[in-house]
Amino acid sequence: MVPEPEFKYKQCIIIRNDVKMSCGKKCAQAGHAAIVAYEKSSLTMKKAWMNEGQKKVVLKVSDQKTLFELKTLAVSAGIAAALIQDAGMTEIPPGTITALGLGPAKCEDLDKITGSLSLL
Known about the structure:
The natural substrate for this enzyme may be peptidyl-tRNAs which drop off the ribosome during protein synthesis. By secondary structure, this protein is an alpha+beta fold. The chain is 41% helix and 26% strand.
């Protein structure tokens, strides 16, 4: 058996579960969150995460308020955070906050913020 790799860094993508979106729409919003959070990260974090294999975890929250709270916690911990606001061209009204991207950052730092959340 091949040993499972140990990751020191990851990115967390958090999707609002109270907004009615198709699976494809959720995937697109997750993609936006991943890219924007990555772009906001430090060069050191980007390199470490890229060299390790770009671990990502997609989680869910029940409302917009929780996304804002998680973003505040991440920013105070020095973790890159990106709230995603939809343009409203397909399934949902313009301006709807759909997702939050966090990191890349150290796994233990993200776990302090997102460890209680469920997988999407």
